[in-house]
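Please, structure for the following, as tokens.
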Amino acid sequence: MRPTVRRSIACTLASATLALLSPVASQAAPSCTDPSRPLSVEEQRLPQPVPQELLARSGFADIAPAFGAALCEAGDLAAAERLISSSGEQLWERAVARAQGRDTTGDLPTADDRPLYWARLGMTAALRQWTPSFPLDDEQRDQLLWSLERHSRGQTSVQFPRGEGIKRVLVSGFDPFQLNGDIRRSNPSGASALALDGLVLNTGSGPVRVETAMFPVLWKPFEQGMVEQTFLPHLRPGRDQVDLFATVSQGRPEQFDIEQWNGRWHTGVDNNDERRDGVAEIPPGVPTVEPAPEFVPSTQPYAAIVNADTGRYPVFHNTEVTEIPAGETEPVVRPDGPTPGSAARAGGGGSYLSNEIAYRTTLLRDAVGADLRGGHVHTPVLTFAPDNAENVVDPVFTRNLQDIVAQVRTIVEVAATAEAGDPAVKVAKTPRDHTGRVPAPTM
């Protein structure tokens, strides 16, 4: 738990009579809803049976309807801003409480990240279709949506204790993704973020405080500076600086990877079916390195992590990149990192948003001159039982989720307490496609 008092969730999340209704259809009263206002691609998936089952079986089906009803009572912009920030924070805290066993509602695995994802989308859908009793232009609505996203992802509530004697670690995770292929998907990095938020790990070298935040699998928030806005206060030298940061996402089957190189190039289709294929641009006003480096290295204590017994899955130090060598035009895979003057086409973890969050955070580290341990961790792919093509949970899924989350916790503990180690480590040699990306699903 954080040192601050948790606000009551029950006072703003209401009525059990709405619990099994569709978040899109019923999250707001007809008097303040305009169903003709378009929803995002992510929000349009909400009425499908799987999201509805996940919400009902987690006890999160009441959240969006209660939020929509509360929006109808907001009499001015200031009241709406207060409602949105407090409701977003309470959603995050409710998801953290469930992941950490303090809220035992429902029969899904406690570490399951999917209820948070789908409940948030119900709330953003309500806000997108809200017709308030006062004037609200598109820019103001976008600002309210941005606030809801940030508060419901733990990005605004990162708080570390001041003073000596405790190490501070900031960890991030991601939403589920590739839902067009299987809408049941979970993301173990997001589940790990929920399970770790606010914990104090008592280690042989002293206590370690962990704070976490979640990020969307969407290009636009990254381009608008969501990553830098969240990490900058805790990377910049000063009283709020962390000792370690780790961005985490889902990677290859059956193994963890500690990624050494993060590339500037980004490609792929996000959760709103938007595509990118080009360099990752840094938003104006953000500290950065100029000219922009094509690759930025990890400063994680990878040798200590790889050589420790952290859990069920093997852990590798991945030094591979895909680059266009200086003076050439075609991409090549380099197993031992980039060559001078090359152009990035993929970091060790590919060229999707997992690589991008790693690039942005390690670049920010260097831009502010922070001598910190930090980099990216790819978890194993979270899978269902081979014969399960439709159930939202099964014993294999539950065991895999629990084991991955537990191993992420141990990796964080090792990284936070490790001394400088011998760089001689195991290196992953998994084949990649012609773009240099790891086999799907990868995040």
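Residues 77-99 form the longest helix (23 residues). The chain has two domains: 16-151, 167-417.
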